[in-house]
Amino acid sequence: MIASDSLMVVDHIQKSFGGVAAIKRVSFDVGKGKIVGLIGPNGSGKSTMVNVIAGELKPDGGAIKLSGQDITLLPPHKRARLGITRSFQMLRLFQTMSVEDNLVAAYHMRMRTSLLSDIFRTRSAVKEEDDIRGRARNLLTLFDLQKFAARKASDLSIGQQRMVELARGMICDPTVFLLDEPAAGLSPPNVDRLIDLIRRMRDDFGMTVLLVEHVMRVVRDVCDHVVVLDSGDKIAEGPPDAVVSDPAVIEAYVGTGWKRRAHN
Question: How many percent of the chain have pLDDT more than 70?
Fold first, then answer.
């Protein structure tokens, strides 16, 4: 049953590769202003599902709706214009560009002024770029990165680059922010910082987040609802504490040791 506050609906999505089913008629919805976790062991279908939602893979069956609009066949750039933004497990920053310019470049597809206006530096184009740079600096301050604004992205640590990527996604005011393992490569103090930032995305900015994550502390601490995949099937969903205790989930993660780790 679809919740009344659903912003995005994933309806019986199927995807196979060479006859092997990666996703088997999986359905779930993402409520507006909620953080929904998508978890599962390696090979469960999480990455395939995120790529289908982002438009990078075409499903074999089923549908995806955003605010009631069917986006199943839309390419990634059109989904981005509708507000679907994603981060990647592997960093995809422009390494030779400054940190600030990385954020400005991410906003480029949403700019209201035309390419000719930008080339000839019209008053409207200059004003819009100034506005975008102001927003970029505000976000860098939020992420405690303002002192690195003029530095090349490659000069930053992996943890700092991960924060730049999240700020780059936020500058686009996403309708749904797909976070693909944002804790990958982060030290424990940076994981704590990440948890605080994801909460602020929801609480201070009203963002809707679909979070794919292996670090269960992040999932437990920030998610309102969790969906669990295993071998392409949805095997459980519900509040984080209930999911952690579900026997099917414990079995999927191989034994009760996972349950103990999830509470640490």
Answer: 86
pLDDT of residue 89: 59
Residues in the chain, total: 264
Residue 175 and residue 67 in contact, taking contact as beta carbons nearer than 8 Å: yes
HSE of 99 in the Cβ direction (CA atoms, 13 Å)? 28
Query: Cβ(86)–Cβ(177) under 8 Å?
Result: yes
First-last CA distance in the chain: 33
| Structure-block tokens of residue 122 | 């019209």
CA dihedral angle for residue 21, residue 24, residue 29, residue 30, rounded to 10 degrees: -20
pLDDT, residue 208, reads: 97
Q: Does residue 116 surpass a pLDDT of 70?
A: no
Residues 6+ apart with CB under 8 A from 195: 217, 218, 221, 222
Q: Is 152 helix (H, G, I), strand (E, B) or coil?
A: strand
Tokens of 51: 């790529």
Contact assessment for residue 25 and residue 14, using Cβ atoms and an 8 Å cutoff: yes
| Contact criterion met (CB below 8 Å) for 162 and 198 | no
Most confident of 170-174, 183-187, 226-230: 226-230
Give, to the nearest 10 degrees, the angle between helix 158-170 and helix 188-203: 10
Q: What angle do CA 91, 235, 264 make, to 5 degrees?
A: 60
Report residue 105 as tokens: 């470049």
